[in-house]
Amino acid sequence: MNRNTLQGKVLPSLLGGTSRHPLPEDLIPPSGSCPDGSLAVLSLMGQALRFERPPTPESFVIEPEIIDSRKILANRLRRPLIRLLTAKYATDHPARALARAFDRLRMRPHPFDLPSIDGFVRSYAEKLGPTAQHWAARQKSETGPRSYFDAELVDESNWSQAAVSRRVAFLEQRRRDDVDAARALVESTWVQEDADVRFRLLQVFQTNLSMADEPFLASLEKDRAPRVRGLAVRFLARLGASSTNPALAACLERISEHQSGLIRKRTTLKLELPANVKDQAAPPWVLQTFSGVSLGELATAFKLEEEELIEAATKDELLLLALALMATNDRRLDLLEAVVSNLPNAWERLFEAGLDTLGAMTEPERQRWEEILLHPYGKELPAIYPLWDWLHRITDVEAPPAVMRMILDANLLTNVPEQESGKAFWFDVVAAICPASQRQELRARLTQFDSSLTVAPLALLEILDGMENDRTDA
Amino acid sequence: MAGLDDLDLWLSDQVRHGMASFVAQNAQACRTISQRLVDAKAPALAGRLDSLPTRLFTLPGPARPLAAIRELGQVHLISQAYRRASELPEPLAADARQAVGWSVTRDALLSDPDALRVSGEWRVFAVLSEVQPDRLRRVETWLWRQSSGDGMPTCAVLIDFVPLATGAATGGYLVGDHIHAELSFYRSAIPLRALVAQLKGGAEPSDEPLPLPNEALGVSYAHYERALGQLPWLRAIPLTFRSAGVRRTGEQLHLYDHEGGLSLPLDASQVNQALPLASLDRIDGIGLWNGYEFTLAWAETRLGRWLCS
Questions:
Q1: With an 8 Å Cβ cutoff, is B278 touching chain A?
Q2: The model's pTM
C-alpha cells in the first residue's frame, strides 16, 4: 500500500467513518485482535501522516527593515529592568523615569525583551526608539503608519509620517530656526491631519508668533474642530488681528475693576464666580473659563501691563489662579513666578483646577515651572501623594536639583501621613524624579526603611545609573 | 489484557464513526476509555488518551481530524507492540511497556548493569513544565552533551514530577547550567529519558554557546524521521539548526530552513515571545519537535542569545 493509495482510498473512510465509507476490502490486512483489520489501517495511515513533512507556506510576511541606531540596553540590566517593569502593584512612575532615560540617552530595550515588557513598550513607544515603535504598532490597523523614526531622523521629507510628539518637537525647533518654513510645513499637510494633531501642531505657533502667521490663522476660523478654531482666534487676538476672542469676552464679564489708594490710584481686579459655582468647583471653572485667553490679552483689555495685571489681582486668589494658568499656557515663566509670589499654594490650586498638560513646554521649561511652584513651600512640602503623582505626570521630567534638595531636606519620605507610611507609591515617585546627582543621597535615605519596601526604588536607581554609565562609556 | 481488548473495541467504534465525528465529541469518549485503562493498570496509555482532547484542541480546526488519526493510530500501535513485546527487540519492547504504563523505579534503573550510561559535560538547554490532571507538575529538563561523535546520545531529558502545592516550577536546574554528570538512560530504541546516576560537581551557570552540530534544520529533521522509524510513537525530540530563520504568516511563526526549504510551525504559545526573531536573518539553535509544533528553546543570534522563558 503506497502513500497515494492511503491518501486516496483510506483517508476518506477514516475521516468520514467506515460505517458510511467502508474501507476497500483488498486493503484490509487480517488482524487477530480486530476482525475487520481497520485498526491496522488506522495505524498505518497515522504513521504515514507522521512521516509527511509540514507544508511550507507559499509566502512569508516580509518584515519591515527598521533602522534603529540607538544603543541596546546592556545584558546585565535586562533582567532587573524586566523585573521592575513587571512587578505587581508597581506604579507607573518608575516606567516613566525609565522611558525618559531611554529617550535622553538614546538607548533602547533589547528587542528580545519587548514581549516581556509589552505594556511598557506600548505606553512609551515614542521614547524607546523605532524598533519599540514598530513593536507597539504591530497590532494596529493595516492603514496605520508604516514608518518609525527616531527624533534625529525626522526631517521635512518624512515629518508627516512620524509620531505626533516627534512632529511637535521638530516643528518647535523649526519655529525657532525659520518660522516661515515651519508654517509652510504645517500648511502642506494641514488638510490631512485629524483634529487632535491639528490642535497640537497649532499650539506650537505660540513660539515666535508673528503677523506673518495671520493669514494662516485667519483661515482656521472656519476649522471643523472648535478647539482649533478657539486657539486660532486666541492667537489672532494676541496679534491684534481680531478683537473678537469670545473667551476673552466671557472672562471680562466675570472680572470687576476697582480703583483704590488715596494718593496713588491703583487698579484692583476681582473675579466674580457664577452663582452656581461653589468652593471646590471654582478651580475647574477657572481652568475652563480662562484656558482660551492669554495673559497679554487680558492685560490689554484692562489697559495694564502684564506685571500690573498681576499686581491688580493680588487680593483675589482665584484670579491669581487664573493668571497662573494663563502664564503656564503662554509659557511665560517670568510671569508665573510673579503670580506664585502672591499665590504660594499655586501648586495645589493648579492641581485642584485639573490642569492636565503643559502644552509645548520644553524640558527645561517644565523643570523651571516645577521649581517655581515648589519654591514657596521650602521645607514645608505637602505630604499629599496625589499632588506629587500629578506633578510627575504633568511635567514628565526629573526634578531640578533644587527641588530634590527640598525633598531631601524636608524628609518627605518620613513625613508622609501615618496611613501611607511605607507605601510603595511614595518611594516610587521620589526615586523616579530624583536627578542623577542626588541618587547617592537618596539611596542613603532609603536604607532607613524596611528593605522589602525599597527594592523597586533601589532597582530603578541602579538601572538609571547603569544606563548613564554605559552611555558615558560608549 | 482485558483493558487492551476494550481499547480495540473502542478504537474500532471511533473508526466506524469517523475521525471528523471523533474530533467533535471526543472529551467524554476519551475520559471513559482512559478510566477503563487506569483500572486495567495501563496508566500511561490512559494518560495519553485522557490528554488527547486537549492536545487536539490546541491545533487549528482543519488539522484536528488528521491529528486524531495519527494519535489513535499510535495508541493502537502501542497496544499491539505491548501484546507482541516478546517478538520485538528489547529496547523497543521496553518502550512499549513504558508507553502502556510500566514504571522503572530509580533504584531499578541505577542498579541495572545493562542500562546505557553516558558520562560527560551537559548543558541545560530547556526547562519545560506542564501541569498534569493529577495535580502534579511534570518538569522536563533537557540536556545537551558538550562532546559528541562517540555514538552515544548527545541529548537527554530528566523528568521530575513535583506536587503543585510546592509551587516549584523547575527541576532544580536552570537554562544554561553546566553539569558534569553520568546519566543513566531508560531502555529505549531512542534513548532520551535519563536519570543523573552520578553528579561530578554542582551545576554552574554558564554563558558559553552550545556546541551545536554544523547541520541545517533539514538534516536534523532527517534524524527525526529515522528516529520515528525506530520508535513509531516517539513524542518530542530535540532538533538543532544552523542558519535558519523565523518567518511569519499572519499570526503563525515558522522556523524556516533556507537551504532545504523545510518549515516547521512554532508552538502557538511562543508567537509573542519569538516574534522579535522574525526580523533577524540567520539564527542557530535548538528546540523540540513533537510532530506538530516546534518549541524553540535556544537561539544564538547577532543580537545575542534568545531563550525560551
A1: yes
A2: 0.84
